[in-house]
UniProtKB/TrEMBL annotation:
Gene3D superfamilies: Aldolase class I. Pathway: Amino-sugar metabolism; N-acetylneuraminate degradation; D-fructose 6-phosphate from N-acetylneuraminate: step 2/5; Amino-sugar metabolism; N-acetylneuraminate degradation; D-fructose 6-phosphate from N-acetylneuraminate: step 3/5. It catalyses: an N-acyl-D-glucosamine 6-phosphate = an N-acyl-D-mannosamine 6-phosphate; an N-acyl-D-mannosamine + ATP = an N-acyl-D-mannosamine 6-phosphate + ADP + H(+). It comes from the Bacteria. This is Putative N-acetylmannosamine-6-phosphate 2-epimerase. Belongs to the NanE family. One of its GO terms (biological process) is N-acetylmannosamine catabolic process. It is an enzyme of class 5 (isomerase). GO terms for molecular function: N-acylglucosamine-6-phosphate 2-epimerase activity; N-acylmannosamine kinase activity.
Amino acid sequence: MTTALPKYLRGGLIASCQPVDGGAMDDASIVAAMARAAVDGGARGLRIEGLANLRAARARTDAPIVGILKRDLPDSPVRITPFLSDVTDLIAAGADIIAVDATARPRPQPVAELLQTIHDGGALAMADCSSLEEARTAADMGFDLIASTLSGYTGGPVPEAPDLALVREMARLGPMVVAEGRYNTPQAAAEALRAGAGCVTVGSALTRLEVVTGWFADALNGVAR
Ligand SMILES: CC(=O)N[C@H](C=O)[C@@H](O)[C@H](O)[C@H](O)COP(=O)(O)O
């Protein structure tokens, strides 16, 4: 399955099932239900954070899972899968693809070692990048998938729109591109494929009920009565 995975995901949707931290839906059985529902609705793959969530989702679907662990480190801004032990734990929990922060920022363990550990464990490696330069480095290192996940999240205000320009440039590098980050409408997701993405990950718009509800509530609040 592993080598056929990018082909299977091509043109499809990855549903990121990451509830709001500490929110009402932050519970492994709810994450697993979200994952199952997303697959039933047509998602080809899933992105799941945390070992308990991953195990619970794995028990409910055979769909490919991008596994991540998020950590808040005292001495590094890197949050997504920073440790080699995170990689082995995620693979043991049933992840098919492991995503790691591949930004050029201070980190506890080198990206090259994370990549090696992913491949040694028989999984595919996905590089969460914030820039073209990082994506190029990841492609040269041998990552199987390169993603725009961290564009807009490494400093300064977070833009409203997704970074389609980055996706367009990443598409020339070789590995399959995963467009991720602020693809909040079906139209924007389709635009990412037209820009050269192999597949598109959508999170908040599908699985963060508080966020989506807020969009609607804000829009209604903005209407004078
Ligand atoms: C920056 C960061 O940590 N992104 C995270 C990565 O796992 C998630 O919080 C996002 O929900 C995911 O990337 C999908 O993006 P969006 O929720 O915009 O569809």
